[in-house]
Amino acid sequence: MKIFVDTASVKEIRDAQSWGILDGVTTNPTLLAGEGQDPRRVVDQICAIVSGPVNVEVTTLAADEMVKEGAEAASWAPNIVVKLPMIKEGLKAVKVLSDRGVRTNVTLCFSVPQALLAAKAGAAYVSPFLGRLDDIGHDGMEVVRQAVEIYRTYGYTTQVLAASIRHPRHIVEAARAGAHVATAPFAVIEQLFKHPLTDIGLDRFMDDWRKLQKALEAAQARV
User: Fold this and answer.
1) Which DSSP letter does residue 136 get?
2) Which of 36, 167, 214, 217 sits at 20 to 30 Å (Cα–Cα) from 113?
3) pLDDT tens per residue, range 160-172
4) Inter-residue contact 101 to 78 (CB < 8 Å)
5) The domain spanning residue 87 has which CATH number?
6) Are residues 107 and 58 part of one domain?
């Protein structure tokens, strides 16, 4: 399963890229607005860091406007993926852009029927929002499982991109459910590294090594 970071922070993206595990980036209007800069400038910086997919979302709601905005965003860099909302106008735009060779990601997906429609329209990715479904008492992971099963059965090339990730367990469950990608905030990806036994073991190794070095230095001093 690929891991994307869900952020528009160039610093966070640069840090995550340095770990050697980052496959791509997802942004949205809220994340880009939070950077307080021209969105195009921010996206250009991100694309200079990441060679994998960089998702940029449209901010219009009419299909023809989405197509125009999406085509413009796609021209910024070859790895741009255009995010469009799961609405009728959004799927119209997905079809047009996909036919033009522009990769698209249908976002705000909350059901299996929506995921099926996204695949039929030609989306490269569909983004079920796990955390938001869990918030209202639904099983977000079941949407992932069923979408993956349907895509496999009918040969759809659309990839399931698990979004609205709240904690490391979501990432593990998404991987087990067969999601092709999981996108998570920087802080959640950082948590994947952490385990108290790792810290304890490392401290013990380093302490033993320091003791050995001191003993060798003391022995050398006596010679």
Assistant:
1) T
2) 167
3) 999 999 999 999 9
4) no
5) 3.20.20.70
6) yes
Q: Which residues contact 88 (CB under 8 A, 6 or more apart)?
A: none
Q: Position of tokens 């195009």?
A: 40
Digit-coded pLDDT (tens) for 200-221: 999 999 999 999 999 999 988 8
The 3-state secondary structure of 55-117, one letter per residue: EEECCCCCHHHHHHHHHHHHCCCCCEEEEEECCHHHHHHHHHHHHCCCCEEEEEECCHHHHHH
Q: How many domains does the chain have?
A: 2
Any residues with CB less than 8 A from the CB of 43 and at least 6 apart, and which?
Answer: 27, 32, 54, 56, 73, 76, 77, 80
Report pTM. 0.94
Residue 222 pLDDT grade (very low, low, confident, very high; cuts 50, 70, 90):
confident
* Catalytic entry in 11, 68, 83, 120: 83
Q: Three-state DSSP class for 52? A: coil
Query: What average pLDDT does the segment 47-75 reach?
Result: 98
In the residue annotation, 211 being an active-site residue is answered as: no
Coil, strand, or helix at residue 221?
helix
Average pLDDT, the chain: 97
- Answer yes or no: are the C-beta atoms of 156 and 150 closer than 8 Å: yes
